[in-house]
Design brief:
Shape: globular
Radius of gyration: 20 Å
Mean pLDDT: 93
Structural class: alpha/beta
Strand content: 15-25%
Helix content: 25-40%
Largest sheet: 6 strands, mixed
Strand order of the largest sheet: 2-1-3-5-6-4
Low-confidence stretches: 1-16
Number of strands: 12
Length: about 290
């Protein structure tokens, strides 16, 4: 009896001190700063947390391993995982539940495992909105052109609607994807591009890059820099590198700019809340980025 009680007490102590396991599923994510952000904030709060990169671009893994990777994380005792390009929409079919926001946006960047079930959340929209207000608060939002209608684009578009954008033009090489996103957004302020991007940008107040173009491993720019005007603002979701080719060209043209770093910080802070049950210190995370 005594031995059993001692064993149970020891097991309870081990469980109490076991680190929280989290991670990021994506492709070409070796430059991600998510492990650093989550682990630093956890350490500041006295929480043991390990954050792992589950990069399906690293052999022998492939993009087809998404379901198996998610299942392995769940069975291995992960509290949850973040999800990034190109899986934010594909992963939805693999989950048991969606939060209201993730369902409305149609994309998931955070999965929480609890009581044997997986629940998808979207913290990207919150993160982009917070970062936009910090870097570009007060700019005109009469017409905004957004390039990209994927998982990140769904989140940034929802943020734009919430921030009061009056005319949001969605540009995507896959016209049906842009139309699908417009159909999910409330308020009737979004529309799929019907003209050449140069024509859509004429008179626009700003442009959002919601594609991976400019990210490490995806060099280049989503638009011709000759289309930039000094009176425009330019926001990018990419944060590695923090200064993309697009933002360099925009600053050279005299535009106000917003990098993707704040979006990364604030989406991570909200994901940290969900993974750990403890509120992340937003100011501390932003200061340490």
């Amino acid at each position: 009896m005594t031995d059993t009680a001692g064993a149970e007490e020891s097991a309870g102590a081990d469980a109490a001190t076991s680190p929280i396991l989290t991670g990021l599923i994506g492709m070409d994510i070796q430059g991600s700063r998510s492990p650093e952000m989550h682990e630093r904030e956890a350490a500041a709060q006295g929480i043991a947390l390990h954050y792992r990169l589950l990069d399906l671009a690293v052999p022998p893994h492939t993009a087809d391993d998404l379901a198996a990777t998610l299942d392995t994380a769940k069975r291995s005792g992960f509290a949850g995982v973040n999800v990034t390009h190109p899986f934010k929409q594909r992963i939805i079919a693999l989950l048991d539940e969606l939060s209201d926001e993730a369902r409305a946006i149609g994309a998931v960047n955070t999965v929480v495992f609890q009581n044997g079930r997986s629940t998808g959340h979207n913290t990207d929209s919150y993160g982009f909105g917070e970062g936009f207000e910090r870097q570009l608060g007060g700019v005109a939002l009469n017409r905004v052109v957004q390039v990209g209608a994927g998982g990140a684009g769904a989140a940034t578009a929802m943020a734009m609607v919430k921030l009061g954008c009056r005319d949001l033009v969605i540009v995507d090489p896959q016209a049906n994807r842009a139309a699908d996103l417009v159909g999910r957004l409330p308020g009737g302020v979004a529309r799929a591009a019907t003209r050449d991007i140069a024509d859509e940008l004429a008179g626009a107040d700003g442009i959002i890059n919601a594609t991976p173009i400019g990210m490490q491993g995806h060099p280049g720019m989503p638009i011709d820099p000759a289309l930039l005007r000094a009176e425009m603002w330019v926001a990018d979701v990419v944060y590695f590198p923090l200064e993309t080719e697009l933002l360099r060209a925009a600053r050279a043209a005299g535009c106000r700019t917003a990098h993707g770093g704040d979006m990364a910080v604030f989406q991570a802070a909200r994901a940290f809340d969900l993974f750990t049950g403890h509120a992340a210190d937003r100011q501390r995370m932003a200061a340490g980025f």
